[in-house]
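Supplementary Text 2. Reproducibility record for the structural model of the 373-residue chain.

All settings were left at their defaults, and a single model was retained for analysis rather than an ensemble. We include the record here because the model underlies the residue-level annotations in Supplementary Table 4.
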Amino acid sequence: MSQPSPEVHERDRGMDAHNAVMRDIRAERDETYDAHEPTRVWLDEDNTPDGVKTSLTIILNTGGCRWARAGGCTMCGYVAESVEGGSVSHEALMDQIDVCLEHEAENIGASETPREDGDAVDAAERADLIKIYTSGSFLDEREVPAESRRAIAETFADRERMVVESLPDFVSAEKLSEFTGHGLETDVAVGLETATDRVRHDCVNKYFAFSDFEDACAEAADAGAGVKAYLLMKPPFLAESEALDDMISSVERCAAVDNCHTVSMNPCNVQRYTMVDELHFRGGYRPPWLWSVAAVLERTADADAIVVSDPVGAGSDRGPHNCGECDDRVQTAIKDFDLRQDPSVFEQVSCECERTWELVLEEETGFNQPLAR
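Retained model, structure tokens:
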């Protein structure tokens, strides 16, 4: 597979211009982060091949995505939350895991009688699903050393399912076997963004091809692991209708790949220290309409995969939104669809702003977007 080296991937491919701009934008950040604290941790529910499970989502604070340090994706500001210096020790990463376990103990079953300090979490109350992200690649040993990866696998060996995040370059049966070898149902979440190579290259500034994603799916299968594809709804430089069509096509193409059992469509939101942020500030970018998100889910409901979406920042100017009046109702319908996979939920929500959205689909082009804010 391809390797994330800017020296290789910038040369003669037009990526040097994107990366140069992104490096300048990222240089504006001045925040610092504690290497012993995770970036974020929360409890939720997720739809899996084994049904809806209580999930503990962990975003580890690492030295940041290797590709982002070269410049990286036009919409991704997560590297701005990474630790200075480019690396985090094994001890610090395991301290982060301890913080996440404490969060789980304090918050799971929070509606029930609170436990006394020091009480252990009953196994029946713990999250069945553990999802570990790094805002980069968990399987990249520059971000997470092999020692830490193996220790994390052992820490959660008694759970039911594990999801780890990685670019396709770093997916190997050997690494994933460290999880499946414990009897864990294991998935690798790949930030594919789109099945269209040109959109991924020119709009997202991501270096690999769809064929690399297919190879990663095969590699995961060799370890007895599955794959969850992450797609990006409406990267910069696409009109609303182009983004809608691209997502429908991408969901269908991912669902047709052997061993890709789940597709998570992430509507683009405006993050700091990104090219999307610069475009949005100058009136050159609008996040997708929630109606578009619902339309993709509705039109791909019969795909041979679980298709879900989690619109981060929904209803805000910097996140996927409609008119402001119906945003909460549409977001609730999307969450309902995620858990039940029933497209009829979208028949229960309507708003006058659908007319504006339909006009945008008809009239907006890549040369005059955004047509409406």
